Each structure stands twice: as structure tokens, then as C-alpha cells.
Amino acid sequence: MSANKILVTVGAIFTFFMMCVFTVTETEKAIKFKFGEIVRSDYQPGLHFKFPFINNVKKFDARILTLDSAPERFLTAEKKNVIVDSFVKWRIGDVTTFYTSVAGDAYQANIRLDQIIKDAFRSEFSKRDIKQLVSTDRSAVREALITNTAKAAAQLGIEIVDVQVKRIDLPSEVSHSVYSRMEAERARVAREFRSQGSEAAERVRADADKQKEIILADAYRDSEIMKGQGDAKAAEIYANAYGRNIEFYAFYRSMAAYKETFSKSANIMVIEPDSEFFKYFKQMK
Hints:
- With 285 residues, this protein is α+β, with helices and mostly antiparallel strands.
- Helix content is 58%, strand content 20%.
């Protein structure tokens, strides 16, 4: 046998061998067909065999894929529209079902899965108000969406890995009215705080005025008591002095009256010369 024939034979054998084997990687799932009929789909990563011209193999991406849905409107329990932007993480669960339901086409799978997810969103959002959706029930909504879509997704051979809400917005025509209500609410709270502050200030001022009046009244009372005591003491002293020397006391009082009367040069008195007021002037002559 010539060398050329040997090479041709070896090449033919190698080609036939390569047509009899196929590989499946960790990121792939494979289906083996026999004249177009599925005969096996549970292949593990590695090297596998098939019969040329009788079997053919189709491979599919087994990695986690992303369905990034377009923002969609949903109605809440309050009958308000919200715009939800979300995404879904999924992968092929049963490759046979995946092939028979969507022909193994990831694009068709995304279309079918998108409708399933939107139906689940619609159902869950209709049970909750905006506050619950935005703040308190995010994790509960996520778990409910994964649970409620798992069965429908399994009918497509798909396994739902995760469903996440990226953003929840109000429609533009609603946002203005919502912001207006929020502004009005904040203004109401501010007015309430100002009213409470004014009320507290009035109480403080009223208490201060009350304390002021009490302090002034007490001071006036004490001053009157002290004044009365002083007048009484002065009267007692004057009385004692008057009792000891009546003539001196009368003279002293007259001198004080003269001093007070003639303290200013402009003072004028119209009085009779023999008046009692000039008693000591007469005696001095």
C-alpha cells in the first residue's frame, strides 16, 4: 500500500472518529437526536459518542441569562399606575422541554418568559399599595414572583434564578400631583409645628407676665410694709422728741418750714405779718 493511500485511510478513519464524538462543556447542555427524534439530553461535561448520519447533536447555553424587561405599567391596590423597571435571571432547567416549547431559541424564551413575569407582577402589585411596594414588601414581592412564576417557567424548561425590581416610578402625569400633595402635607406639618411653637411661646410669655406681676406685687407689698414701719418709727421718734421738749420741737419744725419755704428766691407768699407762721421772727426782735 502506498504512502498516499495510508494517509488517506488514516485521514478517513480520523474523520469518521471525529464524526462519532462530541464534547459538552460546563457551560452547555446538549440533546442527541436520532433522525430528528430526541433520544438523550442528560449529558454531563465531557466526551460523548454518536453515530454519524444517524445522530445529530444540538447544544444550548447552560449559563445564567438575563431578561431585561422594558418598563411596564402596573396598577396598585390603590388603583394607581406605577412604572416598574425590572430584570429576570434565568437558565435552562430541562433542556428537552426547553427545546420542544421554544425550539431552543433564547429570544423566543425571553418573549414567553416576559409575559409570565408581567402577569405575576400584575397580580402581586394589585395586592399592595405604593408604600408597601417601595419600602416594606420588596423582599416579599421578590419571593412571591419567583414562587408564582416557577411552575409556568418550568413548562418552558426554564428555571427562574432571581427577579429584581430596579426602579418603581410614578407616571409623569401623576408625579406632579403627588409632589403637590407631598408639598401640601409638609406645609401642613410645618404649620402645625409653628402653631405648637406659638402656643408654647404664649404660655411662656403668659407665665413670665404672671411672675412679673407677682414679683412687682410682692415688692410693692414689702416696700409698703417697710415704708409703714419707717413712718411708724419716724412718728415714734418725733413723738418722743416732742414729748421731751415741746418748745424745741416747735422751733425745729418752724426752722424746717422756713428753709423749705424760702429755699428759692422766686418764692412768693401772701400772708399777714402777725400770722402764727412768723411766730419766732417776732420773738427774735
